[in-house]
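Hi,

Apologies if this is the wrong queue. I'm a grad student, and the batch job for Major facilitator superfamily (MFS) profile domain-containing protein from Lithocarpus litseifolius produced an output file that my downstream script rejects. I'm not sure whether the problem is my script or the file. Here is the sequence I used:
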Amino acid sequence: MMSICMLIMGLKYDYLKNNGNLFGLLYRLMFFFASFGPNSTTFVLPAELFPTRLRSSCHALSAASEKAGAMVGALGVLYFPLDGDINKIRSAMLLLAFTNMLGFAFTFLGSETKGKSLEEISGEDDLGNDTTQGLAVKRSVSRSTSGTYA
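Support response: The file is valid. Your script probably expects a header line. Output copied below for reference.
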């Protein structure tokens, strides 16, 4: 919805420039839906997708990357429409709508976590053993429980 609001503002900027109430409504809707889209997925998806051992580091890296991308995007578009040229403002809004839709598409490239526990997602079994390393973990568990090498 956020991308659709930006797309409408970009395509119909001439009309919306003279109709401030409608432009304000679209602008408010855009920020309302931004709170449910990119802002929430920045925190929800990394917390579910990364393995338990690396979760905090990867979550911080994801958040930092998102903030850096937002800063580059904001500064890149900041000076583009400053002279008040309608075509530049329209182009900036269309570019932002396109990048929003691109981010929406990339969100679905991640793995689906619905119905899976954090242990299943991270590759850990019920005993807390890492099943992604296979035999090496089984040997260390056998050695620690029996006192001899397996």
